[in-house]
Design goal:
By secondary structure, the chain is α/β, with parallel strands linked by helices. The strands form 2 sheets. A 6-stranded mixed β-sheet has the order 2-1-3-6-5-7, sandwiched between helices. A 3-stranded mixed β-sheet has the order 4-9-8. About 35% of the residues lie in helices and about 15% in strands. The chain has a single domain, classed as Spore Coat Polysaccharide Biosynthesis Protein SpsA, Chain A, CATH 3.90.550.10. The longest helix has 18 residues. About 35% of the residues are buried. Pfam families: Glyco_transf_34 (PF05637). Keywords: Glycosyltransferase, Transferase.
Length: about 260
């Protein structure tokens, strides 16, 4: 008698085109169209220069079932995987940020194996200052699937890169689990991320924490590493919707600079 064994599901090969998809989610409550258009143009020009895909979404595009709108970034990354199934990497960059250096390519500058091995911070507390869970000391650049940074408050989810594939699906689905969204973490998805990274070895084993200046430099050093000329992007950390320290005012300081840099690229 012959038995039919179920065949193993073969994962579809990813061609790596486009190399990167740039993902940003815009808050529908922001009514400053000049500011939003500035951010959109920044993303589109950078993506066009390198042949990258873009997913520029709005928080209202996704049904978060009552969860804080900041959770939309996780759904948007999953959306990007569906829209660009052959992309190699996905870079989430918060709305309140500008790409400043048009010459740097994510697949080389951030995700290149040698670059990662030199930059990743090994055997450090995942959540500073005193987490007992530490980043892997033997992780190789080729094994990394998820790159993010820490700031003075802990892990930062304003800028991160994920390698497309089955692991990415598992990770994003784990992160978006309804259980975590119902916990009412103080910092919503960021505290949920800190939780799963520390208690899921499957995730920690693919994680590289890199210095902030590589993908997540801040406009001031009150909360983390400060932006310097040449960094890939500047993030307007803890800016407000209105007032003297509004995100739009912070962006004004850098808008002419990015436009000049891009026009010369």
């Amino acid at each position: 008698m012959h038995y039919a064994y179920p065949s193993r599901k073969r994962h579809r090969a990813i061609s790596g085109k486009p190399a990167v998809v740039l993902v940003t989610v815009f808050d529908d409550k922001i009514d400053n169209t000049v500011y939003i258009n500035n951010i959109r143009e920044n993303r589109m020009q950078y993506a066009e220069k390198h042949g990258y895909g873009t997913l520029l979404a709005k928080t209202s595009d996704y049904d978060l079932n009552g969860s804080p709108t900041s959770w939309a970034k996780v759904v948007a990354m999953r959306h990007a995987m569906t829209k660009y199934p052959d992309c190699k990497y996905m870079w989430f960059l918060d709305q309140n940020a500008l790409i400043m250096n048009p010459h740097l390519k994510v697949e080389d500058y951030v995700m290149g194996a040698n670059k990662l091995e030199a930059a990743m911070r090994k055997d450090i507390p995942v959540v500073p200052p005193d987490s007992i869970i530490k980043t892997f000391s033997h992780l190789r650049g080729n094994d990394v699937e998820f790159v993010l940074t820490q700031d003075k408050d802990g892990l930062s989810s304003t800028s991160f890169v994920i390698k497309n594939g089955e692991w990415a699906k598992f990770f994003l689905d784990t992160w978006f689990d309804p259980l975590y969204r119902s916990y009412n973490f103080q910092k919503a998805e960021t505290h949920a991320l800190e939780h799963i990274v520390q208690w899921h070895p499957t995730i920690l084993s693919k994680l590289a924490i890199v210095p902030q200046h590589i993908i997540n430099a801040y406009n001031n050093n009150g909360h983390g590493e400060q932006y310097k000329d040449g960094d890939i992007a500047v993030v307007f950390a803890h800016c407000s919707n209105v007032g003297e320290h509004s995100c739009a005012k912070e962006a004004e300081r850098f808008s002419q600079q990015w436009r000049t840099s891009f026009s010369r690229a």
